[in-house]
Amino acid sequence: MSIEIIPYQDEYKEEFQQLNYEWLNKYDLLEDYDVLILSDPQKTVLNNGGYIYLAQDTQTKQIIGTIGILKHDSTKCELIKMCVKPGYQQQGVARRLIEQCLKQIREQYPEIKKISLCSNSLLKAAIHLYKHYGFKYAQNEHRHLVTADIYMELQL
Question: Which SUPFAM superfamilies does the record match to this protein (predicted)?
Fold first, then answer.
């Protein structure tokens, strides 16, 4: 399997939405905030200085994973919408997505001092991966997601 990490483009909007709706619904975690982000990623993420990356299977051209960077202000951003399609999980796809985001943040926004993320305790593999990259449990500063019972931060 060969995977390429590519920047989001509107032509992939449906796949971005579908992948995220699938996992959010599977775990009964879909909230209004998710719908807002997913309905117009250009407006809610990209136009505000953020990024979205997609993992693409180079053989099938299918989008198999997503992740985003939501910029909050000049010193803080948040990782959002990380997911990998079932069948491609546990193969390093999420690692590559996270590494792309960390690289982008360090290169594009050297002033960023803190990366946060919200998750749910049901998502054990994702939480383990976040810990691997140095994210630590923290007090949630802004509870914009009711179903997110995990808040983590990475100090840069």
Answer: Acyl-CoA N-acyltransferases (Nat)
